[in-house]
Amino acid sequence: MKTKILIALFVMSGFYASFAQKQASYPVGGADNATPSKSMYFSWINNAWEGSTEKQTLQNYEFFKWLYDAYGMTLDIYLFDSGNIDGSLISWMPPIKDDAEQAYEVGTLPLSDRVDLPRQVWLNKAFYAGAPHYKHKFPNGLTEIKALFGKTGTRLGVWLGPDGFGTTPADADYRRNFLVGLAKDYNLALFKFDNCCSPLRTEKRGEFTRMMQEVRQHVPDLIALNHRINLDEEALKQMTTFLWGGLETYVDILINNNRTATHARVKNLDRGLPPDLQRLTEDHGVCLSSCLDYWQDDLILQAFNRNLIMAPEIYGNPWLLRDRELAELAHIFNLHRKYNDILVNGKALPEALYGKYAVSRGNDDTRLLTFVNLGWEREEHTLTVGDGIGIKGKGTYEVRQYHPTERILGYVQAEESLPVTVEPFRSALVRVTPVDKSGAGINGIDYQVLKDKEGEPVEIELLGAPGKTYQISLKGGLDNVMIDGKKVKQNDGKYTVSFAGSKLKNDHHRKLNASFTKIPVPADAEKQLETLFFGLDNNAMEVRSLKRSGETAIPQVKAARDAFFESPLFVELGIWDKQLFDGNPETGFSHHRSRYEAIQEIASKPDYKWGIFRLDLGTVTVLDSVVFKGVSPNYQCLEVEASANLDTWEKLAFTLSERQVRILTQGK
User: What is the predicted pLDDT for the residue at 124?
Assistant: First the structure.
């Protein structure tokens, strides 16, 4: 358990030492294993198959612009995900003309030619857009958006299907010229080709290769991601990466824990390492939409442990993080950028010495090491500063932990050792560097760097135990120290810092190793189960994340949140229970999307689906009736029960007509 004190320091050169970037190289695939990583955000599940819009994109830009202005965080690539150029036609997208079915399957149908059709005609069909038909979503084109993102050092990328070459040479020329022109005109940094749009027809592989060769004549450093596309040898030469394991990382939706643990991201921490630490793959990045606790541990491994070509890579809705966590997000991006050039050199460490998936990255005198603990007990590793981790030099080295908190672990001579502790179900990031290159820091306490923008005061949270006093010292030329807004003086080179509260009597970790005993099923198990159900909701994961993080004081964050939650798709899906009570008859809550299924009922009636809708009024309430409007035409209501205590239940009468269920409470 830590409490926090804010300290502001002033250092003109930045809190950390910086490493110069190598001269970029442009191999056939746009990058190789020695190419430093590119940081990226992609918009999947901020928008789904319907695509983004100009308005929403500009609001997202303002969010990243705020991170750039406030913290100096640079995003290399902003990727428009599906539905903007190409897409997969699914049930909430506008259908297309009946006589154009062949056209959209092979890829020449413009977006503007779609009209209503029965869903079974167009469900899950691919569409391919041609210029300028994406402009119904971006009426001013992409020129202004490109220029805006360029102000923060960000280039654009787009999600695509691999085909779209039509059935005639003219069709193929149209598709090729469109994408070559798109890459050239907007200096695109990335193409993401996804089989979710459609496969690439075998006979069109040559067209695909020719197109990519022409693209690279204009944008030789363009990254090409391959998401599950079956390509031949020549086409594969044009691709930069493949999707590692075919796995997506939407937590508790497309990836979930396979063990009991303290948080929902443990499976992410247990993904392991690509074979031979190859970097020309993509791990789908870190999802910042659902189950947000311990996202930092996930991102540390993605950025510093695997350190693939796309890193740090995030997607979803980062504006759902707490305001303070946004400072941590920027700090991880900035720290990675400072060491990006040397992180390409990786070395897997022996599991017997350093635990599962430990990796050391860096050069001969500076290494960044990552560790992960997938168990319930702390792990302590003896870190030897020497050739075993990639250190070649002699002299004195500083060993500093950057995550989960920052602290100077100690100073050792080459080939000497010191302990490194990794907390249960956490990752850790440690730097080893010669003491004369170690830069600014704080001795004597854990801390968290919140802001380190060159030329501005450094903001740091000191992390101490309640009721405890620390003697801390500063290194690296720091001065003009303010703690909690007040200037403080040093005494013999040290500062005294005290934390309020009562001292802890026990180790905060003590309850994690408790033993469990099997007990009989309680007599009131059903009541306990109903109490649990009434304490849960079926809201979208993003709604739960919003509740978890609370209100924001940052206008750009609020605008990005509002753009997502007020988007037509999100509202129409009916996945926020507040829409039952918003006074708008056009909105509702689609509880059937998360359904409890009775195995026996389904076995006896294969075509019959059932669910349970629970409504908690918050207190015992006297009502004449409860009416549900707009239920589906084939809806059947089996029974209704009510309870004042979740223990005793009384059946209530109801009527079902004209797509309404009226429950007759009779004043109960």
Answer: 38
